[in-house]
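Possible race condition, two jobs.
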Amino acid sequence: MNIARTQYRKKSILWANRLALFTVFFWFGFLKIWGKSPAEQIVTKLHQLTIAPLVSIQQFIPLLGILECLIGISWLFPRFTKIAFFLFCCQMATTFLPLLLMPNETWQCCFALSLSGQYIMKNVVLIAS
């Protein structure tokens, strides 16, 4: 009975984690699609520094939002976990780029992040989950 209870708890924790990842990715992605994302300014600046010649910002932000929504939805289906994890890792790698490429916008001083930097750093929690 103890083993069954432990397995139930593990499954519950895994599903709570999946639901949390879905919520964050779908919500933030939907805000980008809707044009209401508080991250739009930093995404726009990063876009200008990296892929601006390849795709316009008007196309990029909604596409990024769609990708984030798809990552969120894929966490809800265990058979898509490998795909979700791969897309998640790619997205996480790009979210940390402003810390390196845009230090004036993301850092106040040594070890002190700006609000944008804090928004980016919260992704450490997502990675831990």
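Job #2 (started ~2 s after job #1):
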Amino acid sequence: MNDNMDNKNNGNKLSKVLGRTDIIAIGFGTMVGWSWIMMTTSWVNEAGILGAVIAFLIGGAIILAIGLVYGELTAALPLAGGEFAFIYRAMGRNSAWLVGWIMTLAYMGVAAWEGIALATAIDYILPIPKFGPLMEIAGYQVYLSWALVGVAGALIITLLNLIGVKSALLFQVMATAALIIIAIVIFLGGVTFGDIDNMGRPFESGRGFFYVLLMVPAMLIGFDIIPQSAEEMNIGPKNIGKMIVVCIIISLLWYLIMIIGVGLAAPAEIRFSGIIPMADVAAYLFSSQAFSTIIVFGGILGILTTWNGFFIGATRLIYAMGRAWVIPPVFGSVHRKYKTPWAATLLVGLVCVIAPFLGQNALIWFINTSSLSALISYCFVIMAFLILRKKDAGLDRPFRIKGGMVFGRITFAVSIMYLIAYIFSEVIAGGNAPEFIIIAAWVVVGAALAAAAKFKDGHISAE
């Protein structure tokens, strides 16, 4: 790479503005979204409170092991793009392109769905008039009024991320603090005003246990957003690795608090009822409909923090791939004034604007696709960890895992089993398995972009 290219890239860097509080807000706020408000009651109902807790502890331990791998790699290679950078170093450009592009789909799938989730939550508090029927997709009638709510949210998130990451993170920190307060209120309310008889049987069934266990990765996906923003962090590399672990532990504790609080708060018949079960549980627990509104408001904050977090992750990953010329290099451009990846931001924003017009049922496919894509990427990252431990032993590792190779092999084996179990129970058992079709189509789109980029090894240096 010549001097001109070096000078160009030096003016094309992201700003180092993120501190510890910002990082926790990114990680925790991304992992805790809207799903808890819809799913927590079903976890207790299906697995029992003890079964749900054990399932989350086991699933959380697996995710924590993967997080440790991410921690070592991020501290060693603190570059935007996370998985893309790790695999580029370990396996080369083609493998990095494939995994990076699949992980982009994981982030975009979640970000795309949030517009519909936002409309659902707002409709609970303030009913949205259903006018302007557009089309029916997968049995769901799409209305212009609902779609416009999602479009408005997408435009706001896009603008926040376009004018600077600090603007997006200020909102992220405030909303994350509110989410933590709501969890504490539910837990303390359940302990104080609830009844142990509300729990029912502590362990309902093995089927319910595995149902919850296989949902844990989808609930904890988001810690991997932290490596995407590594270049923007104003802390040492070792501390970046630690922050990944901290965010996973905080999120796991948050889910456990919610499960215990809900189990104590209301009997099964309340947990089974309503469009938004957590809202009904809160209203029953505190004998006030106002608390159901508070819970839904918390759900809206969760939607926005998750949306914002995955938006950041997707844009930084696309930016890294554009910078490496594996997709058109315009996506590796940084805005001169705001120091944000403007082309990547506009691309992700466009997807989020279009998504609400696809309807609620169709977007469920994207959620499942996101979980599947993330699990596939996790397996590749652990492979990269093992390869780098062997062929790049001299790489500086400020955050180093003890028992590296043994730990990596065990984590890889467990992750592969987790992936297989998820595919058979959640994807194939679901019927048509559109997730595979979506991933294949996405890879074709990525291949077209890669061809358009006309990348060659001479475009960038090995460094």
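Residues 1-10 have pLDDT under 50 and may be disordered.
Logs attached separately.
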